[in-house]
Amino acid sequence: LSISVQMLCARLAVVGQVTLAEVQRENFPSHFRYVCWLVAEFSVIITDLPEVIGIGIAFNVLLGWPYYAGVLLSPFTTMIFLATQEAGGMRYLEGIVVFFIGVMSISLWIEMGLIGADAKQVVEGIVYGFAKSNGLDIFSILGVLGAVVMPHNLYI
């Protein structure tokens, strides 16, 4: 559902040259706009909760810290990313993200080598796994993709 709504908002922006917020301002009464704003704010909080909890779990697994310490530290990690973007620009921040993705990818391949996984079968599973899936698997794939669609991006 969220992918469909995001596609409609993208069409509205491309074809109509307006955002969802602008359309709501022009067509809805103020009390309804405030309700939409509160729903959007609530959605932001709900979609950010897994990231905050994930940081708590990550610090617990990596450093042995209690969960609450990682959760309380999560706003500071966000501020570090924002400060990095402000100081070095978007390209610098993108470089850092690409570096960490590379480290994770290399670590994954090293781990697969240590356990003796057949690299050919792994690659075939990734490539052909989507092609061999039945029609119902697309709903699972879209569900995962829809989970990453942030509802507050609809208003931008």
* Biggest sheet record: none
N-to-C span = 18 Å
* Unreliable segments of 5+ consecutive residues: none
- Beta percentage is under 5%
Let me know the average pLDDT: 82
Kindly name the structural category.
mainly alpha
N to C succession of SSEs: HHHHHHH
Distinct helical segment count: 7
Calculate Rg over CA atoms.
21 Å
| Total strand segments | 0
Helix percent band: over 70%
- Global geometry: extended
Main location: membrane
GO molecular function, one term: cadmium ion transmembrane transporter activity
Membrane topology: Multi-pass membrane protein
Keywords: Membrane, Transmembrane, Transmembrane helix, Transport
Structure write-up:
- It is a single chain.
- The protein is mainly α and 156 residues long.
- It has a domain at 118-149.
- 83% of the residues lie in helices and 0% in strands.
- The chain contains seven helices and no strands.
- It has helices at 2-16, 20-27, 30-63, 67-88, 90-115, 119-131, 137-148.
- The two termini are 18 Å apart.
- The model has no long low-confidence stretch (mean pLDDT 82).
